[in-house]
Write a structure and sequence with these properties.
This protein is α/β, with parallel strands linked by helices. It contains 10 helices and 15 strands. Strands 6-7-8-3-9-10 form a 6-stranded mixed beta sheet, with helices on both faces. Strands 14-11-13-12-15 form a 5-stranded antiparallel beta sheet, with helices on one face. It has a 4-stranded antiparallel beta sheet with strand order 2-1-4-5, covered by helices on one side.
Length: 322
């Protein structure tokens, strides 16, 4: 039995002379958290709108599957959508907004009221149920937006920038909310610019740029891809001088070198295998107090994949060598 929820095959969409989506293919599996990433204007919103029937594709096929893995028509009542452009009624009370959106998705009056109370408590906005949305802070408005998108327990939740406007504590709360959606059986398609949070959440990642696929896979797969590398931070026992490292600039394995402080440097290497050699070279220049290394983060891989030259630091930048 197939575990597919959505299959996107060679989908394309153009607006006049702009090719917003160009031959994109991927699959979303039932019960996973799938991250659709890319810079502004990459085509993410256009792609999502085609997936939920708001826009027709110019080419290609978008196929939905039922819970048994059989091809089926899309059921709008089973979708929760947090769009990039928010659309709640700012002059209405929060409780009424949530109940209304529940009823739009087929819930009874009693069901929508109960779900509204539960989600308001879960997202810590219960005290605002009788307040107009426009009186809330940006972060609390965002929580209401999320609640309105998922209170009907959708089969698929499309969350575009769910962390927008949230402080670090509420970002952690939202992480928990998204994980709990997955635990209850909801498939989550997530788009966000906070890549450190995406890295903690996503089962699989699809990176889009200029309407085309750049890379895709699990986070471990991406860290093992051609866009991956190794980050090495070396801390010296005393301050060092930038000029000492000029001879390193010609080495092909060294992608970038940044001064973190006057006694600490950060190296980005093409391969982990040469890390020990670089530590030995550093110890020949000054006493090394300690060092630590690790695979590049999803954020760093994202930058390298989209613009390798931009990902490397400019040699003329203050306190930085390449």
């Amino acid at each position: 039995m197939s575990n597919l929820l959505i299959q996107v095959q060679e989908v394309g969409k153009a607006f006049r002379t702009v090719r917003a989506v160009d031959g994109v293919s991927f699959e979303v599996k039932q019960g996973e958290i799938f991250a659709l990433l890319g810079p502004n204007g990459a085509g993410k919103s256009t792609l999502v709108r085609m997936m939920i029937g708001m826009l027709p594709p110019d080419q290609g096929l978008i196929q939905w599957y039922d819970r048994h893995g059989k091809p089926s028509a899309m059921d709008a009542a089973q979708i929760g959508y947090l769009p990039e452009d928010r659309g709640l009624y700012r002059d209405q009370k929060v409780g009424r907004i949530l109940e209304y959106f529940g009823q739009l998705r087929g819930m009874s009056t009693a069901q929508s009221k109960q779900a509204s109370l539960e989600w308001a408590e879960r997202l810590e906005v219960s005290q605002y149920l009788g307040s107009k949305l426009e009186t809330l802070s940006k972060g609390n408005q965002q929580k209401v937006q999320v609640a309105a998108a998922v209170l009907h327990r959708p089969r698929l939740a499309l969350l575009d920038e769910p962390f927008s406007g949230l402080d670090p504590l509420n970002q952690e709360m939202m992480l928990g909310v998204i994980r709990s959606l997955q635990e209850q059986g909801t498939t989550v398609l997530l788009s966000a610019h906070q890549l450190e949070l995406v890295e903690r959440l996503a089962d699989r990642v699809f990176l889009l740029a200029q309407g085309r696929r750049v890379m895709s896979g699990t986070v471990p797969e991406l860290k093992a891809s051609r866009h991956s590398g190794y980050s090495l931070r070396i801390h010296f026992a005393k301050p060092v001088q930038a000029g000492w490292f000029d001879p390193w600039k010609a080495e092909s394995d060294l992608e970038s070198l940044e001064f973190i402080s006057d006694d600490t440097i950060q190296l980005t290497l093409q391969n982990k295998s040469t890390a020990i050699e670089w530590i030995q070279r550093a110890s020949e220049m000054a006493d090394v107090a300690d060092f630590r290394g690790g695979a590049l983060s999803l954020h760093e891989i994202y930058l390298r994949a989209l613009n390798p030259k931009q990902a490397s630091l400019d040699v003329d930048r203050s306190r930085t060598l390449v």
